[in-house]
Specification:
heterodimer; A: alpha/beta; Rossmann fold; 6-stranded mixed sheet; 4-stranded antiparallel sheet; globular; B: mainly alpha; about 60% helix
Chain lengths: ~425, ~325
C-alpha cells in the first residue's frame, strides 16, 4: 500500500448541499454487480417517486426505483459511466416531492422481513462496486466480525467523511440493523487517521450505549491507499488474509460502507428506496468543489445547466470515481449511478505522463497490495505472451493503480493489466 | 470540450526516471568533492572525460538505433560518472574515453538500452579497461593532499592500495585513514565518509533499496569478524568495510535497479551472495579486490533469482 497526496482540503469542511429537483433523469438498468434489472414500466407511463421501475433478475441483482414523480420519456441505450453504453429509462420529472414518514414497530420486524425491505428498496453497496446488499446480509457462513468501512481512501472524494459528520446517528442505526441480522461477535468501525472530526463523534456514539450493539471498537488506521479495499481493510483491522477466489465471509468477516449503513437505515425506518446519494464533485476546473445530494440518474450536464456546478476553466479530464480507479468520460451526458461516489473535473491536476523504458526498479512490486508482479505482466502483455498470465495470478489484480502511480517510467501498468485480463486464458 | 480518455490511475508520482537518476548523481556529490580534494585536476579531467564521452556515445547510438533521444533521463551521465569514480587517478585520457564508449555501447546498448542491460554498464567499462590496460588500472597513487609534499613532483607517488598492502605486504592500513580517504585507490572510492553520506541519503529518500545494502554489509561484517578472529592479519571488520571499492560498489552499483533482483527475497539473496564472493576473492584469490567481479557475477544470476523468488500472492 502507498501514501498518496489526498487533495481533500477544499470541500472537506463544506456542509453538503442538496439538488433534488432535476428536470430529467436517466436510469441505466445495470447500476449494480450482477444481472441487469428487467423493466416493469412502459413508455409514457406516469410514475410516482419510489415506484418500482425494474425488478431484480435472479439472486445477485437489484431493484430500481423512480427517484422522482414524472413520466417515462424513453427507454433506450444511453451513456453509462462504467459500461460506456447501457439500456436506460429516461424520466421527465415534475417538481412534486414525496414525504417519508417513520415506519412504526421497527423493533418487531423479523429478520426475513428486514432483508425483504432492503431488497425491495434496491439497496446496493455504496462504496463503488454496488454489490446487492441483501445478498451480503444473508451470508452462508458464520460472520464473527462486522467491519464498518469509513476509510474513503481515494484522494479527492469526501462523501463518506461528510456523511459521518452530518448523519452519524442514522449510520449507527443502520449498523444496529446489520448487527441484528448478522449477530457478529464484534464490530470494528474503521477510519483513517486523516478523519479526526468524526473520530470524536464516533467515540461519543459508542460511549452513549444508546444503540443495541455487541462489542464495538473504533479503529483508526494509518492513512494508506487502497485501505478501503475489502481485502486490505480486513487485513488492516483483523490481520486475516484470504486468497483470490474466496470471499470475506470465508475469513468470518463482513464489510459494509458507512453510506450503505445509511441507506439501510433509510430503507428500514423510512421505507425509502435508494434514489438519492451524496456525491463529491471536485477538481481544479470547478469554481467551487462540492458535496451534493442528488437524485440517482441526474446527468452531469444538468448540474452545470442549472448552475449547481460551474466551470472555472475547461477541464482536460472528466473522471467518474476517484483519481486512482476512476473512469474517464468523453462528455457531460452521463448519469449519476447508485455507486457513483464522485466526479472529478481536472485541468492542471492531470499528471502529464510520457511512458519510458522500464528500469526494473520493482517499485510496482513493492507497493502491490496483492503481492503481484505488475512489471512482469507489462513485459508479457507487450510481447503478447498471454498464456501463463493466469499462473502469475493476474486475475487477482484489483486494479487499484498503486503500481502505475509509483512507476518512475510512467508506464500505464493498469492499462496493460486490463488488456492482459481480456486475453489471458481462464484456468 | 476536447477531453482526454485514459486508463486509471489519473495521478502519478513526480519521482520519474530522470528524477531518480539525478538524485543518485546528487548523492555522489560528496564523493566527487572528495575525489577532487584528494586527486585534484586529474579527478576533474577524468570525471569530465567519462561523462562527456558517455553522453556523446549515448546520443550517437540512439540516433543510429532511431530511438527518441532520452538524454534527459541522466542515465548516461550517471554511467560516466560512476565509471570515472572507480578508475585510478593515473588513468590516461584515451583509456577513460575508450572505457566510457565500451560501457555505453557494449554494457548498455548491445543489450537493448536503458532497462534491458544485464550487467552494470560502469562496471563493464571498468572490467574492459582492466583487461585492456592491466598495469594502468592497477597502479594507484596516494592522495595529493596528504602525499609527502617534500617530494613535490609533478607526478604523485605511486602507491599500493590498502587491500594490496594487506594481501602482498601483510600490512593493515589504519581504519581512520580509510574512513576519511587518506589512502591510495580509485578516485571516488577512497573516502568512506563521503560515500556513506551519499548512500544514507539514497536509502532515506527510498531511491535505493536498503535490502541489498544491508544484506551485503551484514554478511561482510560476519565473514570479516570470523576472519579477524582466526588471524588479525586478515584485516578487521572496519578494514574490510572501508577499504577498496566496497562502499561505492554496494551503495551505488549493487543497488542499480536495472541489474539487481526485482523481488524482496531476491534482493537478500543477491546481497548475501555478492558479499560472500567479495570476501572469497579478498581472502583466497590472487586479486586484492573483488567488488567489481562479484557484482558483475551476481548480475548474471539476477534473472534466475527473480524467477525463483516470486512473491506469494496476498492471502496465501
Amino acid at each position: 500500500m502507498i501514501r498518496i497526496e489526498e487533495f481533500k482540503q477544499p470541500q472537506h469542511n463544506f456542509r453538503s448541499v442538496k439538488f433534488l429537483n432535476p428536470k430529467k433523469l436517466i436510469l441505466p438498468l445495470s447500476q449494480h454487480t450482477g444481472r441487469p434489472s428487467s423493466i416493469c414500466v412502459k413508455m409514457k407511463d406516469e410514475v410516482e417517486e419510489g415506484q418500482l421501475l425494474a425488478k431484480d433478475e435472479g439472486f445477485i441483482s437489484a431493484q430500481l426505483h423512480s427517484p422522482a414523480k414524472g413520466k417515462i420519456l424513453n427507454i433506450a441505450s444511453f451513456n453509462h459511466p462504467v459500461l460506456k453504453k447501457g439500456n436506460a429509462i429516461v424520466i421527465q420529472c415534475s417538481s412534486e416531492k414525496k414525504n417519508y414518514s417513520l415506519r412504526k414497530h421497527v423493533d418487531s420486524l423479523e429478520n426475513d422481513e428486514i432483508i425483504d425491505i432492503v431488497k425491495n428498496n434496491g439497496i446496493v453497496g455504496m462504496g463503488g462496486a454496488a454489490f446487492p446488499t441483501h445478498v451480503k446480509l444473508t451470508p452462508s457462513k458464520k460472520i464473527d466480525t462486522l467491519i464498518i468501512n469509513g476509510c474513503e481512501c481515494e484522494p479527492f472524494l469526501s462523501t463518506d467523511h461528510r456523511l459521518m459528520v452530518e448523519n452519524l446517528k442514522e449510520i449507527f442505526i443502520g449498523i444496529e440493523i446489520i448487527a441484528k441480522l448478522i449477530k457478529p461477535e464484534q464490530i470494528i468501525f474503521a477510519l483513517e487517521e486523516n478523519k479526526s472530526e468524526e473520530k470524536k463523534l464516533i467515540n461519543f456514539y459508542i460511549n452513549t450505549k444508546k444503540f443495541n450493539l455487541p462489542k464495538i471498537n473504533l479503529m483508526v488506521l494509518k492513512t494508506a491507499y487502497p485501505q478501503g479495499g475489502e481485502k486490505q481493510l480486513i487485513y488492516s483491522t483483523t490481520k486475516r488474509k484470504f486468497p483470490g477466489g474466496q470471499l470475506p465471509l470465508d475469513a468470518g468477516c463482513l464489510v459494509h460502507n458507512v453510506a450503505t449503513c445509511f441507506a439501510i437505515y433509510e430503507a428500514v425506518y423510512l421505507n425509502k428506496p435508494l434514489i438519492e446519494r451524496l456525491v463529491s464533485f471536485c477538481g481544479d476546473s470547478l469554481v467551487k468543489p462540492k458535496n451534493i445530494w442528488v437524485k440517482i440518474g441526474t446527468t452531469l450536464q444538468e448540474l452545470f445547466d442549472q448552475k449547481i456546478l460551474e466551470f472555472k476553466n475547461e477541464p482536460k479530464k472528466i473522471i467518474s470515481g476517484g483519481p486512482m480507479m476512476g473512469i474517464t468520460l468523453n462528455n457531460l451526458e452521463y448519469p449519476i449511478l447508485k455507486g457513483s461516489g464522485g466526479f472529478l473535473f481536472l485541468r492542471d491536476q492531470v499528471t502529464k505522463a510520457e511512458e519510458s523504458a522500464c528500469i526494473k526498479c520493482a517499485k510496482c512490486i513493492d507497493v502491490c497490495p496483492m503481492n503481484l508482479l505488475p512489471q512482469e505482466y507489462v513485459k508479457r502483455v507487450k510481447h503478447e505472451e498471454y498464456n501463463n498470465l493466469s499462473e502469475l495470478n493476474l486475475q487477482d489484480c484489483i486494479e487499484c493503480g498503486c503500481c502505475a502511480y509509483i512507476c518512475p517510467a510512467q508506464i500505464p501498468i493498469v492499462h496493460y493489466i486490463k488488456e492482459g485480463k481480456i486475453y489471458a486464458p481462464e484456468n | 470540450m476536447p477531453l482526454k480518455i485514459s486508463s486509471s490511475p489519473h495521478l502519478k508520482t513526480r519521482r520519474t526516471v530522470p528524477f531518480i537518476m539525478s538524485q543518485v548523481i546528487f548523492a555522489l556529490v560528496p564523493a566527487i568533492t572528495a575525489s577532487i580534494l584528494f586527486f585534484g585536476t586529474k579527478a576533474v579531467f577524468l570525471i569530465l572525460n567519462c561523462i562527456i564521452t558517455s553522453v556523446i556515445t549515448e546520443v550517437i547510438i540512439l540516433k543510429v538505433r532511431k530511438k527518441p533521444s532520452v538524454i534527459k533521463d541522466f542515465s548516461a551521465v550517471l554511467t560516466g560518472l560512476l565509471l570515472a569514480l572507480i578508475l585510478p587517478p593515473g588513468t590516461k585520457w584515451y583509456a577513460a574515453t575508450l572505457g566510457s564508449i565500451f560501457a555505453i555501447l557494449v554494457g548498455k546498448h548491445l543489450f537493448g538500452g536503458l532497462g534491458s542491460n544485464i550487467f552494470n554498464p560502469a562496471l563493464i567499462g571498468r572490467a574492459f579497461l582492466v583487461a585492456a590496460y592491466p598495469k594502468m588500472l592497477t597502479t594507484f597513487q596516494l592522495p595529493k593532499a596528504f602525499a609527502n609534499f617534500a617530494v613535490n613532483s609533478v607526478d604523485a607517488l605511486s602507491a599500493a592500495t590498502p587491500l594490496a598492502l594487506r594481501k602482498f605486504s601483510h600490512t593493515i592500513t589504519p581504519s581512520i585513514d580509510l574512513f576519511f580517504g587518506n589512502v591510495a585507490g580509485s578516485i571516488g572510492e577512497t573516502s568512506a565518509l563521503c560515500l556513506i553520506i551519499g548512500g544514507i541519503y539514497l536509502i532515506i529518500r527510498k531511491i535505493a533499496d536498503w535490502r541489498i545494502t544491508v544484506s551485503i554489509l551484514t554478511t561482510i561484517v560476519l565473514i570479516s569478524a570470523i576472519g579477524y578472529l582466526l588471524n588479525p592479519l586478515n584485516g578487521s571488520i572496519m578494514f574490510h568495510l572501508f577499504s577498496g571499492g566496497l562502499l561505492i560498489g554496494i551503495l551505488f552499483m549493487a543497488t542499480d535497479p536495472v541489474t539487481s533482483p526485482i523481488t524482496k527475497t531476491g534482493r537478500y539473496i543477491f546481497g548475501v551472495s555478492v558479499a560472500a564472493i567479495i570476501m572469497i576473492i579478498r581472502y583466497f584469490s590472487g586479486l586484492p579486490e573483488g567488488v567489481m567481479y562479484s557484482i558483475l557475477f551476481m548480475n548474471a544470476f539476477t534473472p534466475l533469482i527473480n524467477r525463483y523468488t516470486r512473491p506469494r500472492r496476498f492471502g496465501e
